[in-house]
Design goal:
about 260 residues, alpha/beta, 2-enoyl-CoA Hydratase, Chain A, domain 1, Lyase 2-enoyl-coa Hydratase, Chain  A, domain 2, 2 domains, six-stranded mixed sheet, 9 strands, about 50% helix, about 15% strand
Length: about 260
């Protein structure tokens, strides 16, 4: 039996599947669920399941995640709101920059905090039902899970401002056009595609995967000179590894 109340976790052949499991709430995020996400990823990154090479993230029921559970929202002081937002930042950073590639399978609502969670994944697969929104303005609040940085970097500040001001919704095809989606699939095929990609990614050298999911996002926020310097250091780390030498030798042997 899973030790988690709102998450289903399974691991097979080095691929972990994390399924948000509040289908009756469209997998809305409460404090319990987000802290369970932190616990899962801490375990995958350094605990008994540290041999996991990729993660598939999905939602049970008819939606991926409808965002913050407003029914459990409570009045907080400004400082309490700041600390609560920083908790989300801490946990989402663990997913985004922990070192394990994450592939999300998106369907139904991908709204507010659900979108903030989705963009933590490194590859996003969407079914036709996926719908992307940032409706915080309608609720009199502001994003607090990192969207102002991470969603804006993907779709641009102007488009994100439009989403927040007007409550505009993007469907799966539009999501692909603006960069929220990497792969479009038919209905019911999101998980299959996500696992297909996870298996392919897991065949890469572990050090290369780690470098790609930890270095690129940091380089993006650096100056050009600092980014190029970091790129060189990362290339030196990966290309001098025994695994790289072995794979390159095998490549040339196949060529011969």
């Amino acid at each position: 039996m899973s030790k988690y109340q709102f998450i289903n976790l399974s691991i097979e052949a080095g691929i972990a599947h994390i399924e948000l499991n509040r289908p009756e709430k469209k997998n809305a995020i409460n404090d319990h669920l987000i802290l369970e996400l932190e616990s899962v990823f801490l375990d995958l990154l350094g605990g008994s399941s540290s041999d996991v090479s990729a993660v598939v993230l999905s939602g049970a029921g008819d939606s991926f995640c409808s965002g913050l559970d407003l029914l459990e929202h409570k009045a907080r002081t400004p400082f309490e709101v700041v600390k609560h937002s920083q908790m989300w930042h801490r946990i989402f950073k663990l997913i985004r920059s922990g070192g394990i590639p994450v592939i999300s399978a998106l369907h139904g609502a991908v709204i507010g905090g659900g979108l903030e969670l989705a963009v933590c994944s490194h590859v996003r697969v969407a079914e036709p039902t996926a719908r992307f929104m940032l409706p915080e303005g309608r609720h009199g609040i502001f994003v607090g899970g990192g969207a102002s940085v991470h969603v804006a970097r993907i779709i641009g500040t102007s488009r994100m401002t439009d989403m927040m001001l007007t409550g505009r919704s993007f469907n799966a095809e539009e999501g692909e056009r603006i960069g929220l989606v990497n792969y479009l699939v038919e209905s019911g095929q999101g998980l299959d595609k996500a696992f297909e990609l996870a298996i392919r990614i897991s065949e890469n050298a572990p050090l290369s995967n780690w470098a790609m999911v930890t270095a690129l996002s940091r380089i993006e926020s650096m100056s050009a000179d600092d980014g190029l310097y970091t790129e060189s250091l990362t290339a030196g780390l990966t290309q001098s590894s025994d695994e790289a030498q072995k794979r390159i030798s095998e490549f040339f042997e196949r060529k011969k």
